[in-house]
Amino acid sequence: MNKNCISQENWGNTGFSYTLSLISGKYKMSILYTLAEFGVVRFNEMKKYIGVISYKTLSSTLKDLEADKLVNRKEYPQIPPKVEYSLTERGKTLIPILETLCEWGTKNKLPK
User: Which fold has domain 25-103?
Assistant: First the structure.
């Protein structure tokens, strides 16, 4: 990190701010982790795995991640509808960051 004069800088122009705008939100990291861990995942599988997320929140968060080109949505024309989600190539570039966070959590987890 560079030592710059804060009065001449703007948080919104930083790469860190941009990255946070893509991954911040209560469940975005959980969804990205799920897709990184399991590859191609169907909507209901993800809902069951994450557990505490509502259907509406999961749906809207997946749409946000898709709009940001981090998640791919593949819909199959059948009844009942089948939709699968996976990481895009762009989304896969976040995996090393997620792995680092997981390692940190494993090493620094406080006992209950």
Answer: Arc Repressor Mutant, subunit A (1.10.10)
